[in-house]
Design a protein that fits this description.
Blueprint lengths: L2 E6 L3 H12 L4 E7 L2 H11 L3 E4 L8 H8 L6 E6 L5 H6 L4 E4 L4 H16 L7 E6 L2 E6 L5 E5 L2 E6 L2 E5 L3 H7 L5 E5 L2 E4 L3 E6 L5 E5 L4 E3 L2 H11 L1
Amino acid sequence: MKLRALIVDDEAPARANLKALLRRHADIEVLADCDTGAAALAAVRALRPELLFLDIQMPECDGFDVLEMLGGDVPPAVVFVTAYDQHALRAFDVGALDYLLKPYSDERFNTALARARERLQRSPPTPARLVLKQAGQVLFVPVAGIDWISAADYYASLHVGAQTHLLRRSIAELERDLDPAIFCRIHRSTMINLARLQSIELGSDGEHEAVLTTGVRLRISRSYRKTLLDRAA
């Protein structure tokens, strides 16, 4: 079975180079290549690639904007391809699999591709609990008991009733690993347990909010609203 890939870069030579490298691998199918963020959004939603090679610096809509607007439609393996090294930390914070810095060697490209294959061929079970180390203790937090999760720099805050626990993992990693039937991303920095969702209401600023059974109100980003409505139905 072939891995379905999409290329996004505003420079034609960069797109051509990626296509040439991918053609060497019989198990990769290049679905399309896009030169703008807007075209990438449409292509990802229409073609459903598993592997996305994504430039960062593009006019009007950069690579990070593309991922945010895709919401729950982000492909399972995203490799950023860019000439700028200053975005690496942010790239991994949003769940990127790898970060190719132009110009890259064939060997470095093959390493990124091998990582993509490994991720896409794995289907690990979703965890029933998360393990945290705090003040010399090891805490086991049942996933079903988490009300919502928020991003806190390089950590994630797990909100469990009146308690909050810090976990040294990004919210993008948790979104990938937790059961999508239980947890749903509603904002770039927020996930909720769907069992705690009581209603969706308009806030005082005109933006939609998720109201949890605990009384907590959380803003819903426009790019995640449709995904939330689909999963909550």
